[in-house]
């Protein structure tokens, strides 16, 4: 009987660990500048400053973990997180909009640049305390005449 209880406890721990990993923030896809891959391994979400009296969600995708940063968006923009992308999202009447974007990429001459209208989002889902979606750029997108390609899928705990 004791062996069965231990087996059940061990199985429960393994299942709980697997569920925790499945719920962890994730990012996958492409972040390229001048044809070179950026290394995005982490994503965090937090409440941004309201814009036009509407709430903003700030997403920071980064090479280095920004989880303990007091200001992940600024750390991303100034290169403290390696390759990084800071995105500001706002819910419109019928869909989500990207209202701000800062890019930091080792292959950009103007790394730390802000861009408007460069990145778009679709397939946004907010459920069970998480937000997920698909960020992308149009074909032949450029920042200061430098080619940029973004095609990222993410899910992260909602702020």
Walk me through this protein's architecture.
The structure is a single chain. This protein has one domain. The protein is built from 2 helices and 11 strands; from the N terminus they run αββββαβββββββ. It has helices at 2-23, 72-77, and strands spanning 26-33, 36-37, 42-51, 54-62, 84-91, 96-104, 113-115, 119-127, 130-137, 142-143, 146-157. The strands form 2 sheets. Strands 1, 2, 8, 9, 10 and 11 form a 6-stranded antiparallel β-sheet that branches. The longest helix is centred in the first third of the chain and has 22 residues, at 2-23. The radius of gyration is 18 Å and the shape is globular. The N and C termini lie far apart (44 Å).
Task: Please describe the structure with a list of short key phrases separated by commas or semicolons.
single chain, 159 residues, alpha+beta, six-stranded antiparallel β-sheet, five-stranded antiparallel β-sheet, 18% helix, globular
Topology:
Elements: H1 2-23, E1 26-33, E2 36-37, E3 42-51, E4 54-62, H2 72-77, E5 84-91, E6 96-104, E7 113-115, E8 119-127, E9 130-137, E10 142-143, E11 146-157
Antiparallel strand pairs: 1-2, 1-11, 3-4, 4-5, 5-6, 6-7, 8-9, 9-11, 10-11
Q: Average pLDDT across residues? A: 86
Order of helices and strands: HEEEEHEEEEEEE
N-to-C span: 44 Å
Question: From the alpha-carbon coordinates, what is the Rg to the nearest angstrom?
Answer: 18 Å
How many structural domains in the coordinates?
1
Helical stretch count?
2
* Main sheet specs: 6 strands, antiparallel
Q: Into which percentage range does the β-strand content fall?
A: over 45%
Give the fraction of residues assigned to helices.
10-25%
**Uncertain runs with pLDDT below 50, 5 residues or more?**
2-23
Which term fits the overall shape? Answer: globular
Structural class: alpha+beta
Tally of extended strands? 11
């Amino acid at each position: 009987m004791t062996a069965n209880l231990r087996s059940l406890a061990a199985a429960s721990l393994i299942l709980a660990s697997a569920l925790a990993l499945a719920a962890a923030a994730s990012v996958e896809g492409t972040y390229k500048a001048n044809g070179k891959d950026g290394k995005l391994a982490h994503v965090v979400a937090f409440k941004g400053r309201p814009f036009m009296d509407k709430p903003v969600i700030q997403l920071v995708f980064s090479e280095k973990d920004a989880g303990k940063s007091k200001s992940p968006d600024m750390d991303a923009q100034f290169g403290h997180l390696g390759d990084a992308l800071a995105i500001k999202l706002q819910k419109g009447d019928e869909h989500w909009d990207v209202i701000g974007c800062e890019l930091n990429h080792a292959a950009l001459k103007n790394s730390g640049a802000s861009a408007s209208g460069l990145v778009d989002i679709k397939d946004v889902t907010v459920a069970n305390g998480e937000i997920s979606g698909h960020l992308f750029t149009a074909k032949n997108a450029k920042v200061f005449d430098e080619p940029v390609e973004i095609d990222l899928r993410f899910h992260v705990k909602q702020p």
